[in-house]
Write a structure and sequence with these properties.
Helix content: over 70%
Structural class: mainly alpha
Number of strands: 0
Strand content: under 5%
Order of helices and strands: HHH
Largest sheet: none
Radius of gyration: 33 Å
C-alpha cells in the first residue's frame, strides 16, 4: 500500500462532525479525573513519604550501630589510615 496516496485520500475526506467537540470533551474528562483522583493520590503520597522516613530512620539507626561495633572508622587524611599505600608497602 502506498502511504502517500492513502494519506492524500484521507485528507480529501470531510471531517467528522464531532471532531470539533473532541478537545472540549478531553479537557472535561481530564478535569473530572483530577477531581476524583486528587485526594486519593495526595493521601497515598503522604503515606509513602511517612513510610519512607520511618524506614530510613529505622534502617539508618540499625546500620550505624552495627557499623561502629565492627570496624574503626577510616579517615582519608588523618593519621589512622591502615589501608594507605605507604603503610602497606612498609610491611613488605
Amino acid at each position: 500500500m502506498d502511504l502517500d496516496s492513502a494519506l492524500r485520500r484521507l485528507a480529501e475526506q470531510p471531517l467528522h462532525p464531532r471532531l470539533a467537540e473532541l478537545e472540549g470533551e478531553v479537557m472535561r474528562l481530564i478535569a473530572a479525573e483530577r477531581r476524583a483522583g486528587g485526594r486519593v493520590t495526595l493521601r497515598a503520597g503522604m503515606l509513602a513519604a511517612v513510610g519512607a522516613v520511618v524506614l530510613g530512620v529505622a534502617g539508618g539507626g540499625l546500620s550505624s550501630a552495627a557499623a561502629t561495633a565492627q570496624v574503626p572508622t577510616l579517615t582519608p587524611f588523618g593519621p589512622a589510615t591502615p589501608l594507605a599505600p605507604s603503610t602497606l608497602l612498609a610491611f613488605q
